[in-house]
Amino acid sequence: MEGLGRPTPFAKLVGQQLQHECFTLIDVGCSGGLDEAWRSFGSKLRAFGFDPNVAECKRLASLETNPNVRYIPSFVGIPSDHAFAQTKGDRPNFSKNPWNRLSVARSLEIAAGNAGLRSQSETTKSNLWQKTELADPNVPLYLASFVKDNAITDIDFVKIDVDGADFEILSSLDSCLETLNVLGVGLEVNFVGSDADTDHTFHNTDRFMRSHGFDLFGLSVRRYSNNSLPGKYMQMTPAQSEFGRPLQGDALYARDIGSPDASALADRLSDEKLAKLAAVFSLFQLPDCAAEILIRFRPRLSELVRVDRSLDLLAEQAQVDRWRKLSYGSYMAAFEKNSRMFYRSRLWPLSEGPRLVHTGIRMVIERLLRGV
Q1: 217 C-beta neighbours (distance < 10 Å), count
Q2: 311-356 pLDDT per residue, tens
Q3: Are 293 and 258 in contact (CB under 8 A)?
Q4: How far apart are CA 253 and CA 286, in angstroms?
Q5: pLDDT at residue 321, as a whole number
Q6: Dihedral sign, CA of 76, 82, 84, 87?
Q7: Helices 287-296 and 271-283 meet at what angle, rounded to 10?
Q8: Which of 189, 222, 200, 232 is nearest to 103 (CA)?
Q9: How far is CA 249 from CA 1, 192, 222, 239, in A?
């Protein structure tokens, strides 16, 4: 998922300090494996991955070393009697889909001509998942029923990326997001579609998440070129391109526990849940949001983590471009003094930087060759 980085020292610290709770992850569309960032929680990670690719789930299970991580080969759907399913009826997942006009669709058609020569793993890597062995689509799994049947009473993060019924699956959790104390949700969203209430579009997703008490904390944009003039792909397989219309992106929604309006929610959450939410923010490259939680709930979190040390770790994460990292106290003191470190350099326009650096290096080499 875009925006989710590598394991961070602060998230690892939280994982080491968890005593009474684990970090529970629901990953719908787990092909390729869990994001490395979630391994920050070590043995405290409990995850359930769902994917219709049977061979991929078997492969992931054979490599998994954490007994608390399961991979379930199944499509995930919504019960036919759910209100959303009743409203949607036979409508597609989203209307006005430009897919057949995009260069990525044509590239997949070209690649599909040679798919018979590929192995299962090569087919999956090439995004030709329809050619792999899939679970029975007529026997989908329902997340609300799954968590109940497996006595899952608490979930920390839900990720959904299934290239189609994402909004439908999300809507099936309408009764679970609050009762299971979900802290964050990572979703693939579409920037195309119609104004229909059931379309898998960003505006519908955003309205749904806000109605359930979540705020938007991250959003990426992936562009896809038309097949009338294909752009260069950004990956080794057909996917987003260097130019084109904004088609999809990844959105991060989380509880804005730092807001004064979230006092009732904060009172309901355990100290370890607060620490886990701060860790989620750190993993999504939002150390500022993590620091806000530590500062606001310092009395509650001080028995779980060393708050000052944690703030230093988050300050170090914020200073990724500095050779020497300031402590949190020094970092904040520099900000209060309006230090130039918080502003872009004015030595040259950003667009001119690479050209001037290249010119400078060439001049140095020429001087050396002349013996100057």
Answers
A1: 18
A2: 999 999 999 888 889 999 999 999 999 999 999 876 545 444 455 4
A3: yes
A4: 12
A5: 86
A6: positive
A7: 160
A8: 232
A9: 9, 11, 5, 12
